[in-house]
Amino acid sequence: MAIRVSGVDVSMHEVDLRDKPKALLACSPKGTVPVLQLGDGSVLEESLDIMRWALAINDPEGWIASDTAMAGMLLLVAENDTTFKYWLDRYKYAGRYPQHSAVHYRSEGDVFLQSLQARLTNHQWLIGETPALADIAIFPFVRQFAQVDHDWFRAAHPGRLVAWLDALTGSALFRDVMAKPS
Q1: What is the pTM of this model?
Q2: Is 117 helix (H, G, I), strand (E, B) or coil?
Q3: pLDDT, tens digit, for every residue of 86-123?
Q4: Which of 6, 93, 142, 148 has the maximal Cβ count within 10 Å?
Q5: In CATH terms, is domain 2-60 a member of 3.40.30.10?
Q6: Could you tell me if 139 and 165 are in contact, meaning their C-beta atoms sit under 8 angstroms apart?
Q7: Contact of 8 with 58, CB cutoff 8 Å
Q8: Around Cβ 108, how many Cβ atoms within 10 Å?
Q9: For 9-61, what is each residue's pLDDT tens digit?
Q10: Domain ranges in the chain?
Q11: What confidence score (pLDDT) does residue 67 get?
């Protein structure tokens, strides 16, 4: 979404992670996506790095905030990428983690969701009154969490969190980037 909003021209390739192309592995031996190889040969292998790179070139929606707000955004994204993602993976794939039930993993992940819900009581978006980098970086993970048990998610998070997620997933930008290439 950040690349699309920035208008930066990149060549995108759909990747089947069960059959990783040699070009992907040559670029990034980790074999994870996303990966962006820059013109100078350097490689960005993290979504947030790619988002920041694109928005540093052009940020027409103002997703990158002032330095003070950026520090808070990066802390929130870091919590998402570590703690929340840890519980999300266990919740989505509870069968792979038999130490606890899916409900236990959901409960642990819900702590982060409750913090997002609290943020959204003060603002329409996670950082303020307009979407920011944090919203775009975090919502795909919240979307995955919600998709595990859609009915539970909507019942457990009435109001702002569901509205925030619906606004992002219902946006023309999201629909556009999620459209399968023809």
Answers
A1: 0.91
A2: helix
A3: 999 999 999 999 999 999 999 999 999 999 999 999 89
A4: 142
A5: yes
A6: yes
A7: yes
A8: 17
A9: 998 888 888 899 898 898 888 888 899 999 999 999 999 999 999 999 999 99
A10: 2-60, 67-172
A11: 57
Q: Which amino acid makes up residue 35? A: V
Alpha-carbon distance of 156 to 153, in angstroms, equals 5
Distance CA 143, CA 53 (A): 24
Span between the terminal Cα atoms of the chain, in Å: 19
Q: How far is Cα 74 from Cα 95, in angstroms, rounded to an integer?
A: 32
Task: Tell me the pLDDT tens digit for each residue of 54-90.
Answer: 999 999 999 987 556 778 888 999 999 999 999 999 9
| CATH numeric code, 67-172 | 1.20.1050.10
Greatest C-alpha distance within the chain: 49
Helix (H, G, I), strand (E, B) or coil at 98: coil
